[in-house]
Amino acid sequence: MEALNSRNEKRSFYKIVFSLVFPMALQNLINVGVSTADVVMLGKVSETALSASSLAGQVQFIMFLILFGLTSGAGVLTAQYWGKKDIRTIEKVMGITMRIALVVAIIFTAAVLLFPYKIMNIFTREQDVIEEGVAYLRIIAFSYIITSITLVYLNIIRSIERVIISMITYLAALIVNVALNAVFIFGMFGLEPMGIRGAALATLIARIVEFIIVLCYSQFINKDIRFHVRDLFPHDKLLMKDFLKYSFPVLVNELVWGLGTSTVTAIIGHMGKAAVAANSVTQVTRQLAMIVSFGIANATAILIGKTIGENREDRARLYAKRFIRMSVIFGIIGALVILGVSATVKDYLSLGDEAKTYLTFMMFVMSYFAIGQSYNTVLVVGICRSGGDTKFGLFLDVVFLCGISIPVGAIAAFLLKLPVPAVYALLLSDEILKIPVSTWRYKTMKWLRNVTR
Fold first, then answer.
1. Which end of the chain has a smaller Cβ tally under 10 Å, C or N?
2. In a domain, 145, yes or no
3. Residue 2, pLDDT above cutoff 50
4. Domain range holding 388?
């Protein structure tokens, strides 16, 4: 009888996991599809356009990481309060998150519109790349504010197991983006070819479509969690204290990781267009290979957070062990995907011989990097954060990314003048170095805490 119950419990568990992971993995695939469309189409235009869009996109990347940090920290509270079925507190958390996100988006919009050349100079010194990047930024900046609203809303309701709407929203945006990319970039239906400006305009319109869908869903369909303007300024000091306690370390963590990743991109950007173009393709391939692993990490945070909120700690431990096993399996699958598509993308894109040489080695490095990232992401983003252990991820990135891989990679690039492949391997060493420490943290069980009031 116990064995039967165990089988039923496992079947129920994996059924729930699949219902969460599948739409989130599909959402990740859709998001990667947007990036892939830009890479493929701009790669057909020129290496300069491809490099410029990749470098200019770092600004939005950093903003997204801040917003992801905010919503991940908020998710610690919302998932556990969802386990307690405390709907009103979840609505207040959404309001607090939305207010901070809007401030962040306004700052990024102003910075990009006022100082586009200075921002592009951070990433490259090649004037033709800078000019193309500035043209991209001047259009895409107008999407930042509406994107922040969309992202916060979708990520918060994802914490309460509402994941289908995100998939639908981003699928609609993908269709719009890809179709308009072709029209604007290459000049179809009598329009003049716009190149990189066309990619930016297509993305802006796609973001508007996302916002409209989310607005309609929040007003007419979602009856569980409602956004109230008054919640932008809630009078709940204890909740604000909890929000800052659990969200701020995650926000700083994501910002440190984002700045670190952008620093890696900037170091590569100063090693030539060929290295930038090869890295752009490699990063999109990594995102494609990691879609399931990232979905598992998000499902981990939702399910374990909810379970802790229900005061079922033994079951939370069991779930964590299963999610770790899944992270390793799908990390290896992701590595095989990266190695498998290496030759295909190299032959398809209009890259120079030097860029193709770099691409082969970068794909190899990214394959083992993906295994480490899958494992660490599930542990940090999924397990540790769901239990309120939000400072550990910050510690990992400060020590291994900012303290080891970036300084060593920068020394290799600018002082020792090592070749691009050697520099790349050093810059992407952090995820492998983190594994022993993250494993130790998991085994201490210090991450398992109920943070609700």
1. N
2. yes
3. no
4. 2-444
